[in-house]
Amino acid sequence: MISDLFTVTVLVGILASGIRLSTPYLYAAIGEAFGQKSGVLNLGVEGQMLLGAFAAFYVALTTGSLWLGLLTAMIVGALMGLAMAYVTVNLHAEQGISGIGFYLFGLGMSDLLFQKLMGTVETVKGFPEIYIPGLSDIPGIGKIFFSQNILVYGAYLLVPIAWFVLNKTTLGLKIRSVGENPDAADSLGVSVSRIRYFTIILGGTLSGIAGASLSIALLNVFQQNMTSGLGFIAVALVYFGGWRPIGILGGALLFSFINSLQLWMQVLSIPIPSDIAVMMPYVVTILVLVATVSKVRAPSALSKPFERGD
Amino acid sequence: MQSRLNSLIDALLPVLATLAALLVGAVMLMFLKVNPVVAYAALWDGAFGSSNAFAETLVKATPLLLVGIGICISFRGDVINIGGEGQMIIGAVFATWVGLNFTGLPGWLTITLAMLAGFLGGAIWGGIPGVLKAYFSVNEILSTVMMNAIAVQLMNFLLRGPMIDPAQAEMASQIPQTARLEEIFRLPRLVPTRLHLGALIAVILAVLVYILLWRTTLGYRIRAVGQNPHASRYAGIKVQRYMVLALLLSGAFAGLAGATQVFGVNYRMITDGSSSGFTGGAGFNGIVAALFGGLHPILTIPASILFGALLVGANKMQRVVQVPSALITALNGLVVVFVVSSEIIRKRRQRRREADAKLENDSLPPPTGSGDKQLNQAEAGS
User: Fold this and answer.
1) pLDDT at B96
2) Contact with chain A for residue B355, Cβ under 8 A
3) For the structural domain made of A2-128+140-295, what CATH number should be given?
């Protein structure tokens, strides 16, 4: 019944799982934001996430160490980023299209490894919820904010860090200048390619974590194509958030809360066809994009390869 | 002669990129302890080994080609359409609805109407992101991705509810599928294989899209907007309108691809909950084929056959050497990466040619030389 939605338990449940669900989006979208701020559009996020998710899961399954799994996912993501950086920075390849290539590579490769190394769907015991004495016991709030796994906290810590790095440090200034006016940055002695290598590899690493947050913290399984479009949504959230970490947080939360709401509506068997409910976050995202996106401007050099003029 | 050789080398670059990808694949196969020669022989055999195999390759190539020629239009107009999957689904839904409801008409008429409905469905699903981009500055990459997700859910909803096979509705299994199309409403087969009329339609349309893009004002304007929207605006072209048109047409061909899948191959819609369950990933692979064909509709024909062959051959390879066909998806990705990376070689060669040409011009003795030339021309003219 609709009225079931408005009990405290259910509302707390919706908010708590909404926050949990936002983790992979936050990692991936913040990583993508670094790349885009420096002028590189990476459409391969989904592929990086899939390989990261598999690497984390497989290593965690075979070694029993979640942290080793997470580390492997980061390395795999970073390597995918390195390849992307070489192709887009050194070879000036079309970014959007090479991203699709990396997506297909990650999609096929993770599936291939899964079938060859595992074959069947297995589960691991993922990162546990952390109990914080005192805070976790606060009614409602404790369940929503203070009973999450470590990767959730990491994601929320990442938002202010990303904001600080982008806006308050020399590195951030360099990243932004490379994305806005690479020629000027270059003439001032900033190495455009070095900055872009850094942001793309960082983005890959964060995408790797995003994948791991799915396979060893949120769902605790690996399946073929388990991200099912999540990486593309993360790219969308960067536009949605106007290239600002705080905006990305807002978008990720909105998307995840609606997602969480529809999941709970299905749990409570509210008579809305589940397929229509699953559609809601996407529809709302498009509507919000219509309402907001035109007010923010993309980095000027986004998706343009840099070539030093003579 | 020199220039023909140059353009031949340029055209060979994608082929070299594919060979490079297959080489990487060979290394991967060796890691999986599989003899690459045996694996690739099985792949070749699966794709071209018999007339049946080749027909299957063409059947797989058909949706790639239809999506691909649409991609040629949109990418030429500088609009990135990632929504092929969703557009295929909506096209298929529209067409299937016609095929199941317009049963009182002659077969050929219903099929024609269904194909048009597929075209229309795809056009709507592509047109929406087009309007959003042109008039609300919503990035089309994002909106087409979202529209894919929405289309999948819409399909799942329709096949579980309003469009479910009445026979399934009564059974406990409730398999989410529509009723089967009656025999007279199916696309006729061309030869005694599964090759259907859709393949021929796709090839004809590829030629028509070539004519559209390079022989009509509409095509010229789409390309002009793609190359330089500002200049186009000054020239009086309504830029936004052509952006919408580029995406709309691109979606329409993908919609037709979805329709031909239902009417030529499966004869019903069925869902496993994912988009690739219906499309086989053609919405993405069509982009790959179009890029491989240099965004040229005619060259997209052999490109589609190549990728169709890889997909069909992958199944055979899976059976013979037990390597999951996912390997081919990964290799397709590498092909894309290598092809776009090899662009730089083409550009460098072109720049060198231009520099050489400039050098030659500069070294000509200026005034008398050109005077002689004029004189020669005058003599030739008289």
Assistant:
1) 97
2) no
3) 1.10.3470
